[in-house]
Structures are given as structure tokens and as C-alpha cells.
Specification:
Length: about 220
């Protein structure tokens, strides 16, 4: 079963498919250029699955063009069915789906570690796999792979009036943003590439190829 098969089975929004593929492309590229052995498969799978439940929290009025050709009514129905099946917590829904398709506990742990509020914990983690997964997610906005600060500022603006783990106060946001930049420095101290080399254009072939990545 490929990741494309999984995305179709779970009726993912196209914008969520692309987000996860981009995050996985960033994560895989970092692993491929790292100076020590990593559990690359678990990193890639965690990136490919981390937002499987995100339709639950999605405001479907924000990106109307992303709902075509099915339209908003179709996706609102999918959202209702997701909530009925998995409950109101999108993060727990993603973990449940990952277990349903046979993801390993290593993958589940990496997925469970993702979160803006967890950046300081991830920064201090002794392993690099959680850092790479978190960082990769911090590099991808709805529009594509971008600068990390741009991505996180965009998320703060989009979720300003929704429940989120992004802090409301500028002081706390900046503390966590600082932790994200420390993670970036930790990672790239062990690679032969730079953050600016992880661009939408450069990673386009990897994004396309990951649709065929084997899940199980």
C-alpha cells in the first residue's frame, strides 16, 4: 500500500495531502544528507501521516479553491464523518489512523512529538529524528515549502481565533520560535546542505516520488 492509496482511502483534502508530502520531502532530504545513521523510514512515515486527522480542525471557508472539484458541502460531510469516527481531537485522530494502517510505535512516537508548544522539549531531545520531523513541519505552509519564521508567523495569524498550541503572547511565541531556530542549527550542523537549499523547486521531484512511498 502506498501513501497515495492511504490518502485516497481516508479521503484527505488535497491541501493536506500536499502538506504532508512536502513535509516528508524536507525530512527525507535532511536524512539523506545527514552525517550519521538515522531511522529515515520512521521520519518519512511520521511526516507523511502527521496531519491525517486535520480536517477535524480545518476551517473550510479559508481556502475555497482547495475544496474543488467536490466543493465545500462534500468536504463538510467528510469532516462530520471524521469527527463521528475519531472524535474532536485531530492529533489523536492522526495517531489512531496511523495505528490502523500498521505504523510502528517509533512512527507513532515521532508523530506524537509534533507541536509548536513542544519545541523546547524537542530542542532538548537527545535524538535527531524528533528534531527533523518537527523542523520539517515548521518549514511547510499551506502555500508550500518556505522560511521557518514565515511559516510560523503565518500559522499564528491563521489560528489566531481558533484553539491551538501556538501561544497568544508575543513573548512566549518568540521563546518557542527561538527554540525552533536552535533546532535548525542543531540539525544543519550535521548536514552538507543549508536550510535555503530546501525549496519548493529543489524538492519537487521528491514530493512527486513520495506519492508512491510504501506505507505497508
Amino acid at each position: 500500500m502506498t501513501v497515495g492509496d492511504v490518502y485516497e482511502k481516508y479521503r484527505l483534502l488535497p491541501i493536506l495531502k500536499m502538506h504532508q508530502l512536502r513535509v516528508a520531502a524536507v525530512g527525507k532530504t535532511i536524512c539523506d544528507h545527514f552525517d550519521r545513521g538515522l531511522d529515515t523510514q520512521s521520519v518519512v512515515l511520521a511526516c507523511l501521516l502527521h496531519d491525517m486527522g486535520n480536517i477535524i480542525k480545518s476551517d473550510l471557508s479559508v481556502f475555497p479553491a482547495a475544496l474543488e472539484p467536490q466543493g465545500r458541502d462534500h468536504w463538510e460531510q467528510v469532516k462530520k464523518e471524521f469527527i463521528a469516527t475519531y472524535g474532536p481531537d485531530e492529533h489523536q485522530a492522526a495517531l489512531t489512523i496511523a495505528r490502523e494502517i500498521g505504523a510502528s510505535e517509533a512512527v507513532i512516537r515521532l508523530m506524537d512529538g509534533i507541536g509548536f508548544s513542544k519545541l523546547e522539549i524537542t530542542r532538548d531531545h537527545p535524538l535527531f529524528e524528533p528534531k527533523i520531523v518537527e523542523y520539517s513541519d515548521c518549514r511547510v505552509s499551506p502555500a508550500g515549502i518556505t522560511d521557518m519564521t514565515v511559516r510560523l508567523e503565518d500559522a499564528r495569524a491563521r489560528y489566531a481565533y481558533q484553539p491551538t498550541d501556538i501561544p497568544r503572547t508575543p513573548e512566549r511565541f518568540n521563546e518557542l520560535l527561538g527554540a525552533a531556530h536552535e533546532i535548525e542549527m542543531q540539525i544543519f550542523a550535521h548536514t552538507d546542505i543549508t536550510p535555503t537549499e530546501l525549496s519548493e523547486e529543489a524538492l519537487a521531484p521528491s514530493i512527486a516520488a513520495l506519492r508512491e512511498y510504501k506505507i505497508a
